[in-house]
Amino acid sequence: MRRSLPPVASKVSDTLIARGHHGVIITQPNPTRTAQEAAEALGVTVGAITESLVFLLDDDPVLLLVSGVHQVNLDRTGQRLEGTLAPAPAAMVREVTGQPIGGVAPLGHPTNLPTFIDNALAGHTELWAAGGHPNTVFRTTFGELVRITAGLAIDVD
What we know:
By secondary structure, the chain is an alpha/beta fold.
């Protein structure tokens, strides 16, 4: 029996397809809200998990796609982005992505967020990212992630 995707994950799948990705989103039996949980469920290293994190750069929301092994150093990463970086409030994350925290995908949002991609993700042949819902993920590569998000690769530490 085929399971239907949650509507928010269907929107992510449609966006993936529109941008030249195969659009396959996998539904997990249980939510994987952390990089560690996702890595364990998929049988991959934590570094291959792409976390989609919304921050405020000065007063504007931006999306950082970060390797699951990295914590964002707000001062250093903010300096690289030439501004002050701070975590976005949960309500703003939901508003600008249209997706729940723990399931935020790198794309498929109602607003176009400036996107920055952790260079550490380039060290993995295969990456996994949330599909818009805590129970969903999709597979991609670093080059494809840069292309489908129109993101800018930066060093994140």
